[in-house]
Amino acid sequence: MSVDAAAVETFDYRLSPLPVRGDLAATQRRAWARLAAPGEWWPGAVRIAIAEETRAAEACGFCRERRAALSPHAAAGTHSRATDLPEALVEVVHRIRTDPGRLTRRFCEEALAGGLGDGEYVETVGVIAAVVAIDSFCDAMGLPRHELPAPAPGEPRRRRPAGAKDGLAWVPTVAPEDLTEAEAGMYDGLSAANIHRALSLAPAEVAGFFDMDSAHYLRDAQLRDFGAEYRALTHAQIEFLAGRVSAINRCVY
Amino acid sequence: MLLRESGEHTGDDYDLAAIAGEGAAGGGVAAGAALAAYADTFFDEDRAGFPAARSRLHGEVGGEALVDAAGVLAIFNAVVRIADAIGIPLEAQKARMSADFRGALGIDDYPAAAGKV
Lengths: 253, 117
Description:
The structure holds two protein chains of two kinds.
Chain A: H1 3-10, H2 22-36, H3 44-56, H4 61-68, H5 87-98, H6 105-113, H7 118-141, H8 194-197, H9 203-216, H10 235-248
Helix pairs in contact in A: 2-7, 2-9, 3-5, 3-7, 5-7, 7-9
Chain B: H1 2-10, H2 32-42, H3 50-61, H4 63-86, H5 92-105
Helix pairs in contact in B: 2-3, 3-4
């Protein structure tokens, strides 16, 4: 077995030229397993198709042309697609993957008007984020990307959090004081800052993404614990790099 | 903002402008210039300079820290998509505390900043 094949199959990076922390690999394994399983709003097959489109967007000529245009509305064309997902969903996936810095409330509203439910939109964002995180890690390490898993059977749960409210963002979100028993653990270990609430229409996406976040970045409780270092990079180095990545993506958060 | 807080704790005066590619390349952060080059070349269209930037960073911080850097880059490349696709605003306190350097660095002029700060 080649080094590349082993790295993909085991997902523990044991043959990586550089040692990858076990906790980091473990969160990626959990994310990959979750990717294949039915979510709150999408079945596993759609989640994997969204993952495929997330990757296809990187090679999409229309996306490249649009990203280079002065305005995203100045370019016209069709996406190089990898799946038979509805066009409105393909547009959402490709745009979020390739041009996130110019997304507007209008973009979100058009996606919802095009037939996506707000929960489906949110879960789509969660799937994209998981794939982008793990693919980016592999790319940054110089390792081959992992094969997408086969979708698991089953139906989505379709339980809308009862406490979801409009106001904070472009879609309803759940404040910690509005949690019900059904999604009680969603913010465990988190401060329930706005970014934590973003995916709260799909509670498993919140817990899953920030499970990864805690191993790739820092746990919430470690963020301002400047008296201790938890990684081989210092707090300052981590924040400098994180800020640089956000700035390159023209993200204000 | 956390970089500023980190500097206040350690007594370091970091150049926050370096985050947005202005000012001193490394902002006074240890291996900052190498970290900046690592991020910049990763997001270049062809990533042609990325292997060299990664080797440089490896040489400056070591293998364990290089893996940490890959993790931070990866997760923030995802976090920005969550924030921007959902339209999440900055918390009021964070917005107040970061207003000075956001304005100075042009961050408030990002298209994605509309209605979020």
